[in-house]
Amino acid sequence: MKTFDVSKKVMGKVVHLEQGRTKRWILKFIFVVATLLTSCAVLGFIAVQIISERQGWDLLTLFQQDPEIIAAYWKDTLWIFWEESPHLIVFTVIAILVTAVILIILTGQRRKIIRKKLTQLEKYH
Amino acid sequence: MSVSDEELVKAIQEGNILAYEKLIKRYQRGLFIFVMRIVHNEAVASDVVQNSLVKVYEIIDRIDVKKKFSTLVFEIAKNAAISELRHKKHNVSLEEIVDFTEEESFIEELFSSNLASQVRQSVKILPRQYRIVITLYYFEDLSYEEIAAKLHLPINTVRTHLKRGKEQLRKLLQNYENI
């Protein structure tokens, strides 16, 4: 009976399978993170525009004043600034950022594995 | 010292894809012999073994490393071989399936990496005539005819030696597991 060896053939299929899987995972990850960050940027930009329209940024010029004035009015100034901000948009931006951070933390281990797999796939060819 | 199946599976789960080649090399021959007994065709057996090994890889991330890897591999190969037979014959008798299952457990034990050294040790203890036949059949992959020709024995004698050798080997392995 001749020697039976299918290791090369199986490894070829495994590498092909893994290339597809890895590529799909990376694309999915990039898509989700990019979507989160883009929506965050868009909403952030809108929030900045609204604050500008309400001249909210002018309130922050207080922090260029003397330290005594800052010490006396910083709480009130920040409170008014917050009141002038579009709350819903700000909360949404914060929620998206938190989601992105959690996602990045949770996929840390998986990303490490993917990096290792990419190195191995490169080595195989 | 050789790496255990569990360590290799864990390494693969951690991204070391190339470690799978070691598992393939460890199991392919045993799987081929096992599948051959079901499908009785080298080309089909080769395809079944390849597909089974790819299938095992597909689910390797979900494999519990605490469970015996060999059981899973042989189970997948058995199912693949039976569906291949079904595909060809449209039906397989229950008797045939029972035979495969009985044979499977023995071969699985024989080729399991954890037992590999123990099997080799146990084979050494077997009476000479059984030891030679078992070694030629399982470790050197010779057919009944080839063994008969090599040892100048009738094929039926080879079959009997193999059967008795397997029985003794099974007993030895059971004794080992009981220790």
Write a brief structural summary:
The complex is a heterodimer of chains A (125) and B (179). Chain A is mainly α and 125 residues long. Chain A has helices at residues 7-53, 56-59, 67-84, 87-106, 108-124.
Number of domains of chain B: 2
Number of helices of chain A: 5
CATH architecture title of the largest domain in chain B: Orthogonal Bundle
CATH topology (fold) name of the largest domain in chain B = Rna Polymerase Sigma Factor, Chain: A
> Quick one: which chains have the greatest interface?
A-B, 24 and 24 residues
Share in helix of chain B: over 70%
Mean pLDDT of chain B: 81
Mean pLDDT of chain A: 91
Query: Fraction of residues of chain A in helices?
Result: over 70%
Approximately how much beta-strand content do the residues of chain A carry? under 5%
Strand percentage of chain B lies at under 5%
Main β-sheet of chain B: number of strands, strand sense, barrel status?
Answer: none
